[in-house]
Amino acid sequence: MFFVEVILPLALAKTFTYQVSESEFLFIKKGMRLAVPFGKSKIYTAIAVELHQNEPVLYQAKEIHQILDHEPIVTPIQIEHWFWMANYYMCSIGDVYKNAMPNALLLESETVVTAQLSTFVNEIELSDQEYLVYQALQQQSSLKIEDIIAILNKKNVFPIIHKMIDKNILVLQEEISESYKPKLVRYIRLHPQYNSQEGLTLLLELLKNATKQKEIVLHYFQLNAIEKKPISVKKLVESAKVTAATVKALVDKEVFEEYYVQQDRVTYSGDVASKELQLSASQQAAFDALQNQFSQKNVCLLHGVTASGKTEIYIKWIETFLEKGMQVLYLLPEIALTTQLVGRLRLHFGDKVAVFHSKYNNNERVEVWQQVLNNSEKAQIVIGARSALFLPFQQLGGIIIDEEHEQTFKQTDPAPRFHTRDAAIVLANFHKSKVLLGSATPSLETYYNAQTAKFGLVILNERFGYAKMPVIMLVDLKDNYFRKQMKGHFSGALIQEISATLSLGEQVILFQNRRGFSPVVECMTCGHIPQCPQCDVSLTYHKYKSQLRCHYCGFAIGKPTNCHSCSSIDLTTKGFGTEQIELELLSLFPSAKIGRMDQDTTRGKYGFEKIIDSFKNQEIDILVGTQMLAKGLDFDKVSLVGIMNADTMLYHPDFRAFERSFQMMTQVAGRAGRAEKQGKVIIQTYNPLHNTIQQVTRNDYEGMYKEQLYDRQIYKYPPYYRLIKITLKHRDFDKLKEGALWLYQVMSQSLDMPVLGPEEPAINRIRNEYIRTIMIKIPQNKPIGSTKKTIQKIVNSFEAVVQFRTIRVGVNVDFY
Question: Residue 388's pLDDT is what?
Answer without folding.
Answer: 94
